[in-house]
Amino acid sequence: MVKTLPSKPQRKAWQHDFPVYLWWAIASLIAFLTFINIARTLVQRHRRRSAISRFNEASEEKNDFASSPPPTSSLAQFPIKVAAVANKTFFWRDVAFKFFFRIPLGELVFTWTYTFVLLLFALLYVPLDVPGSTQRDLALLYSNRCGLLVFSQLPLIVGLASKNNTISVLTGISYEKLNFFHRSASRASLIICWLHVFGRSVAIPLGKDNQIGETHMILGVVAFVSFNLIVILGYKGFLRAFAYEAFLISHIVLALLFLIGASLHWAEFADYVYPAMGLWFLDRFVRLVRVIFFNRFWNIVSKGSSGSRRAVVESVHGGALKLTLQRPMNWNAGQHAYLVCPTVSALPFEAHPFTIASIPSSDKKASTSELVFIVRVHDGFTHRLSELAKSHGGRFEIPCYIDGPYGTVAALDSFHSSVLVAGGSGVTFTLPLAQQLVRQAQLGVSAVRILTFVWIIQSVDHLAWISGELETLRSSCPPSLVLDLKIFVTRSPDVSAEQQLSDDVSIHEEEEVSSEENSPNGSIDEKNEKRKLSASSSLVSDVIKGRPDLEEVLNAVLVDAKGGPVSVNVCGPTSLSVATKRALRAGTGNNVTLSVENFGW
After folding, report:
1. Could you give the count of Cα atoms lying within 13 Å of 522 in the half-sphere of its Cβ?
2. pTM given for the model
3. In angstroms, rounded to a whole number, what is the distance separating the alpha carbons of residues 200 and 205?
């Protein structure tokens, strides 16, 4: 039987199968992660109920539940040991790319695998070993398939970048963590895009017979150049790290140019572009609805309703600001929100993400809850906000619109022990987690019996950020929960922490007199200072000079847990997460779940 060259319709139909196969692979992966998420949730619920039941029984028998190990079987230990090996091998080990970023080895392997699969689908065998086939035919088929694969990945790339996406809901992976895979998918697709351009250049050499002057080819070049700029500027070592606001604007503009150019360049496959555009606009629409609802824009002409669109800004000792908002919304501990302050921002709709450093009101009858944001003063938006606070005597109100909450934070109430580690302003993430665990312990709905709160700061001045909250946390902690506060001061002078706090209190007392005489809000400043001083002075015993030995801290918790499940949540600079992972790798504990929130974009 003589082989013949497939007809053009046959080749097109055959080529269209490859994106379908690729999407089946992606859908299978999402389904697997969804199954893992559901199974993990069910296990945690069962574990929490069992632990609470055992605690109640131990309380009746007057036993020390916190020191008693939970019952385990060899069968139950097997998946725990497998997970421990996987964590220590892949997820607690980072790979550093100089001048760019560092990522867990597991994520890097996943990225390589995705890129390999994409290349495999792009370069699979094409049956062109037939009479009459030429090198041009081969180049056209390969290049067209590469272009089609790039089109097919656009909905995935845009979907992974959305703050409101279905994948995050199904898998339980927060959108900001999925954003890494958004960038990885974009870079892998760019490689395939280059293969498409190269293949077309081979098939249709540049010259008088090429189509470069035609409109659809010009639009293809626009899309190709835009795609390259998107990826290049998205690397952390470039614009994204040094001027995020400029990067964000350029990212949106270039993405629209790429999507529009691609859809007009190859209109036949624009069906992949339209869902991508739809996902982008849907995300913006959902965010707009959130802003309108939580800021009560329909009451804009009502008297006394302006408070739902304003925020109180206060200067806090230690180079920070405290923003307080009252909003009719609910959120989970550890989530964040975007704040839009048009009178302060360089652009009217400029949104800045900050972690909510409080938990919702426990009063079910309350119509609003207080959202607190502790903002470290840097350049740009926070600097302008700080200057305005100084010009208003340290406290003022501004129009402020909130968009959120966002982020997926795993529940901690099913673990035996919980360790919260924060560096600097990362405490805005760990503080509400601790507050939530204390509240759940009060209600008797948490399995956590040991809570270790580690905060690493450069100066005792930073205690003013949350000193009152820490004091309340300790005083409200029930007997069923052991709370261990450890505050490490890394840049204190060559004196004891107690002496530094004592000197700090004396300085504040002098400032209090000055503010009482000169500040237009003297009475308010006086109350704030007195509250801060009394709290700071009572935290002296929790302050430790120097850097923590995280391995020692974590091993002590693991020993006390005696094989029980332990959660470790870290928020701070990259160096802190690296040190925590190193300490966990060196430790002997297996039943540990690590969650990392790093600074940066």
Report:
1. 10
2. 0.83
3. 8
